[in-house]
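agent> Task received from the user: take the single chain below, predict its 3D structure, and emit structure tokens. No templates, no multimer pairing.
agent> Plan: (1) validate residues, (2) run structure prediction, (3) serialize to tokens, (4) report one or two observations.
agent> Step 1 OK, no nonstandard residues flagged.
tool_call: predict_structure(input=
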Amino acid sequence: MLRLKLVVGAILVLALAGVPARAAAPKTYQVTGPVLSLTADTIVVQKGSDKWEIARDAATKIAGDLAVGSQVTIQYRMTAATVEVKPAKPATKPATRPAKTKS
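)
tool_result: status=success, residues=103
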């Protein structure tokens, strides 16, 4: 029995050795409220006094009949659309005052 466990363990180690580590998925957030408007690309939800516009696409899973006025809870992730990198500013030295001279 011990030999079988060692063989199975060795097979698992060898099998997993070639599998790259998977990065953690971005954090998931949610918003709940009534649907104010719908398009093929967006769902607008009222949350308090704010209107939240959430993008959607063909991969968005919808459970139930989505319609204006429906109460929904939307799970979403924040995804960067573009990133503009600006050069770092060089470190500045503090201004030095000229030494006082005696007259």
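agent> Step 4: summary for the user.
The longest strand covers residues 28-38.
agent> Done.
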